User: Fold this.
Amino acid sequence: MAIWSVGVSVYFVAVIFRTSLGVAGLDAADRFQVNASALSTFSILQLLVYAGMQIPVGLMVDRLGTKRVLTIGAVLFTLGQLGFALSPSYGMALASRALLGCGDAMTFISVLRLGNRWFPARRGPLVAQLAGLIGMGGNLVSTLVLARLLHGVGWTAAFVGSSAAGVVVLVLMLLFLKDQPEGDGAHAPAPTPKPARGTGYVRKQIAESWREPGTRLGLWVHFTTQFPMMVFTLLWGMPFLVEAQGLSRTTAGELLTLTVLSSMTIGLVYGQIIARHHQARTPLALGSIGATALVWAAVLVHPGEAPMWLLVALCLVLGTCGPASMIGFDFSRPANPPERQGTASGLTNMGGFIASMTTLLAVGVLLDATGDNYRIAFCSIFVLEALGVTQIVRLRHRAVRRERERLVASRVEAVHVPA
Assistant:
């Protein structure tokens, strides 16, 4: 547990850095003198790099092990956060967010693999939800602590100070982190890939992972569930609550905090349910998607500013998105053998970040095109949810059937193994 905690602390800091723009969006627009579309480019580029790195990172984790990949990630996201603090121009700030996204991309898949090595398979859903919950704690820190630092000591001091957290977790990781328990030869990291087989290895890992219906279903579950909360907390929640709903920054910050607290609480509940009732995965995912669509529709069709109780309901329901996205890994994990876990997790993790990136861009473009009409801009959420639900319904029976076949085959093999 202690070793796993060290690895998760790296992910915790990465989420602080990833979500720091969510509380600094209005300040960034003033600092760099940009409009909504240009502001959204910060998060879009960061997520574009993150999503594009998922397959390479998954392959790296499978071949190089957790500690090496997490070390590279911590160095990159710390440099990205520091660069963002000191950037004198919009272009340099963009480059810093891209660097941050590259380092951030190396954390979560590594933490999932670490959990698979240090905990039994039956605890996989709960461990994954705990990792997500701790990540949400990083979001909470950026919402509460970084927001106050930003308005207390200013942009440069706040972001430079926060980058020190990256140095702390890097030192802890170098001193204490191990890839797997000692003597666990079955889980030893694979050797560094040989050049002669590198390309073939990459193609095989990706093709075999993607061939599994569970991997594809995991991607679409992650795609459809994660992005509504990500878009809200990463960038557009604060401007929406302040500019469209007439709330103060303090009240808006409290609602963003409520979203994070809701996600942390629901993550524990979802993890326990799925660990005990595996068949609850699809109903929980679809239920979260339906509830999110319903409450967003209620907020957007309400004439004028929405009442506080409805905004509170929105933030509470958005809290289901993060835990629901973790269900995607509960489909891809049993569909793939241990040597493909990193690659399969990378494919799954691409889903939500592609959806988030697309929606961030759509909201920014629609805001500029409609004169900051948030009702129209946020309708883009329903388009991606409809696409994702279609794919989930199409793949779910095939994935479950294949998962049962693999389970039966593994039991038969276990019976015939000589003592």
